[in-house]
Specification:
- The chain has 527 residues and is α/β, with parallel strands linked by helices.
- A hairpin with an 8-residue loop joins strand 2 and strand 3.
- A six-stranded mixed beta sheet has the order 4-3-2-1-5-6, with helices on both faces.
- It folds into four domains: 63 residues, Orthogonal Bundle (Arc Repressor Mutant, subunit A); 78 residues, no CATH class; 225 residues, Ribonuclease H-like superfamily/Ribonuclease H (Nucleotidyltransferase, domain 5), CATH 3.30.420.10; 64 residues.
- The relative contact order is 0.07.
- Helix 2 crosses helix 3 and helix 5 packs across helix 6.
- It starts with 13 loop residues before the first helix and ends in a 12-residue tail after the last helix.
Length: 527
C-alpha cells in the first residue's frame, strides 16, 4: 500500500483560526476531517482549535491579532500589564527602560494575577530563561528595540531656553548693532584621543576579546562666531610640555596653532578661563571690535578677578540646563570636529596595518606609536576642516539666526585642490607674453640659449638612455612628509606651512587608499 504524502506543517494566525471557528459554526454538519480538508490542515489541528475556542476568541478581541501562536489568556493578561507599564514609563519621560526592568515588573504582575486567582502559576514563565524569552517576544511583537540614548536634551530646561531667546537675546544682539561677526560662543569638550571604536567586524562564530579603553583625555575649547569664523583651539592637558612634543623641539601651542594650558585633571578652571579671556580681549582690542561671548554657566567659567579688565569682551551666560538646546557649539560643531579627528586617527591605524614591521596591534603597541604629538596635529587639522557653512547652520539650529539654511561645504578633496593649483599654473604659463619689444641684448641671450639647447638635444640623442629610478611607495612618501613636518616644528615654521603639509599628507593617504586592490582568494593560499 502506498504511503500517504507527508503534509507540510502550517503555522496559523489568530485570524485564520477565527475563520475556522466561524466556518464550523456555519456548517454544523461538517466533520473535523471536512473542515481540515477545506482549509488544508489536519483533523488534529481542527480538534485543537475547536477545543481552545474561548482562548482564541479572547486573543482575537485583544490588540494582539498579529500573533501566530495561540498564547493562553493568562499570558495575554501579563502582556497587557507590561504594555501598561511601558506606556507609563514613556509618559513620565523615563529615558532608561531595560529588559531587567520589564522582567522585575513581570514578576510583580504575575504575583498579583496569581493572588487574585486569575491565573495559575504553571501557566506563567517559571525560569529566568523563560522570562527573558517572554519579554523578547513581547518587545518583538510591538516592534520595540533596545537603543542608545544620546545627548542631554531630556534634562534640558526648554522653558528657560525659550525665555532667554525671547527676553535676553534681542537686547544682546542689539548691543552689537546686529553684527553677526561680533557674536561668539565658546564651549569645551573632552576628547579621549587614543580611544578607538568599541564595535568591530567579526564572523558570527568568532570569539572576541576586548581590551582596556584608552582614557587619555585632553580638553579642547572651541570658539566660533555667528558669521562662521573660528578662533584657534585652546587645549588643556596634564603636562606642561609633553615629551613627544619636546622631542621635536617644539611646544604644544605651536603644534596646535592656538593655546596650551595644563592642570592635573586636564579640565577648565577659573585661572585658565580668566587667562583665555584676557588673551581674547587683547585679540579683539587689536582688531578694534567689541564682541559678545556666550558661554554656559559651568563652575570653571568664573572670571571675577579679571572682569574689570575686559573692555572688548562682554560675557553673557546661558541659562542653566539649556546647553543641549541653544548652545551653537553643541548643535553640531563639536561633533564635526570629533568625527574628523576619529577619521584621521583610524587612517593612522590603517597605516599601522599596512606596515610589515608591526606584527601585532594590541593596546600597548598603539599606545607606544600614537602619542600626544599626533593628537595635536589631528586636532588642528580637524578644527581647520570645520566649514563656515557648518558653523552658520549650527547657530541657526540653536535658534540664533533666522533665514535660509546654507548648504554645508562638501569636504574638499585634496586631489581636486592640487589639480586646481596645477591647472592655474598651466594657465599662467600659457598666458600671452608681454607686448614690450625686447632689446638687442635680450635677443642675443635668447638666441644663444636656443643654440645651446639644440646642441644639448643632439648630444642627448647619442647617449644611452639611463634607467629612471622607480617612484617611491605611498608609505615612503608619507614617512618623508612626517619627517619634514617634525623638522618644521623644530624650526618654528609658520602655521600656513603646516597646513600645506597636512593637505599633502591627506592627498597621499587618499591616493594610497584608492590604489589598493582586494587580495584574490587564490593568493591567500600561496606561500
Amino acid at each position: 500500500m502506498e504511503a500517504s504524502a507527508k503534509r507540510n506543517r502550517v503555522c496559523l494566525t489568530v485570524e485564520k483560526k477565527v475563520e475556522i471557528l466561524n466556518y464550523a459554526e456555519k456548517n454544523p454538519r461538517a466533520t473535523q476531517g471536512d473542515i481540515g480538508r477545506h482549509f488544508g490542515i489536519g483533523q488534529s489541528s481542527v480538534s485543537t482549535i475547536l477545543k481552545n475556542k474561548s482562548s482564541i476568541m479572547d486573543v482575537a478581541s485583544s490588540s494582539l491579532k498579529g500573533v501566530r501562536k495561540n498564547r493562553s489568556s493568562n499570558c495575554v493578561l501579563l502582556e497587557k500589564g507590561l504594555e501598561s507599564f511601558h506606556e507609563a514609563c514613556l509618559s513620565k519621560k523615563l529615558t532608561t527602560i531595560t529588559y531587567d526592568m520589564l522582567i522585575v515588573k513581570g514578576h510583580q504582575i504575575a504575583d498579583e494575577l496569581v493572588a487574585k486567582d486569575l491565573v495559575e502559576r504553571k501557566d506563567l514563565p517559571l525560569t529566568d530563561i523563560a522570562w527573558r524569552s517572554f519579554v523578547q517576544r513581547f518587545l518583538a511583537k510591538r516592534k520595540i528595540k533596545s537603543r542608545k540614548t544620546h545627548g542631554e536634551a531630556a534634562d534640558a530646561d526648554v522653558a528657560a531656553a525659550a525665555a532667554f531667546m525671547e527676553d535676553t537675546w534681542p537686547e544682546v544682539f542689539a548691543s552689537v548693532d546686529g553684527d553677526p561677526t561680533r557674536v561668539w560662543n565658546m564651549d569645551e569638550t573632552g576628547l579621549f584621543w587614543r580611544a578607538l571604536p568599541q564595535r568591530t567586524l567579526a564572523c558570527v562564530n568568532e570569539r572576541l576579546s576586548g581590551s582596556k579603553t584608552q582614557k587619555d583625555r585632553i580638553t579642547f575649547a572651541t570658539t566660533v562666531s555667528m558669521s562662521g569664523e573660528r578662533l584657534p583651539l585652546l587645549a588643556i592637558g596634564n603636562s606642561k610640555l609633553p615629551r613627544a612634543v619636546a622631542a621635536v623641539k617644539s611646544t604644544p601651542a605651536a603644534v596646535i596653532g592656538g593655546q596650551w594650558c595644563s592642570n592635573p585633571k586636564a579640565w577648565m578652571n577659573e585661572q585658565i578661563f580668566s587667562e583665555w579671556l584676557l588673551d581674547t580681549n587683547r585679540t579683539f582690542r587689536r582688531k578694534g571690535k567689541k564682541i559678545v561671548l556666550l558661554v554656559d554657566n559651568c563652575p570653571g567659567h568664573k572670571f571675577d578677578g579679571v572682569a574689570d579688565r575686559l573692555d572688548y569682551v562682554r560675557v553673557v551666560f546661558l541659562p542653566p540646563n539649556t546647553t543641549s538646546v541653544i548652545q551653537p557649539c553643541d548643535a553640531g560643531i563639536i561633533q564635526s570636529f570629533k568625527c574628523t579627528y576619529r577619521r584621521l586617527m583610524l587612517r593612522k591605524v590603517v597605516q599601522f596595518v599596512d606596515d610589515p614591521t608591526m606584527a601585532k596591534l594590541d593596546t600597548a603597541v598603539l599606545k607606544k606609536n600614537v602619542n600626544i604629538l599626533h593628537c595635536l596635529q589631528y586636532a588642528k587639522s580637524s578644527w581647520d576642516s570645520v566649514s563656515e557653512a557648518t558653523i552658520q547652520n549650527c547657530w541657526r539650529k540653536a535658534g540664533f539666526v533666522m533665514g535660509p539654511t546654507v548648504a554645508d561645504d562638501v569636504p574638499v578633496d585634496e586631489d581636486d585642490t592640487l589639480q586646481t593649483d596645477i591647472t592655474e599654473l598651466e594657465r599662467l604659463d600659457s598666458t600671452e607674453p608681454c607686448r614690450v619689444a625686447p632689446s638687442d641684448d635680450v635677443c642675443e641671450i635668447v638666441q644663444a640659449l636656443q643654440d645651446e639647447t639644440a646642441d644639448s638635444d643632439r648630444d642627448d640623442e647619442d647617449e644611452v638612455a639611463e634607467e629612471l629610478p622607480s617612484p617611491p611607495s605611498a608609505a615612503e612618501l608619507l614617512q618623508a612628509v612626517s619627517t619634514v613636518r617634525l623638522a618644521l616644528y623644530a624650526s618654528n615654521a609658520d602655521s600656513s606651512m603646516h597646513a600645506s603639509f597636512s593637505r599633502v599628507e591627506n592627498f597621499l593617504s587618499a591616493k594610497a587608499s584608492s590604489r589598493k586592490q582586494q587580495t584574490r582568494i587564490d593568493e591567500l593560499w600561496r606561500h
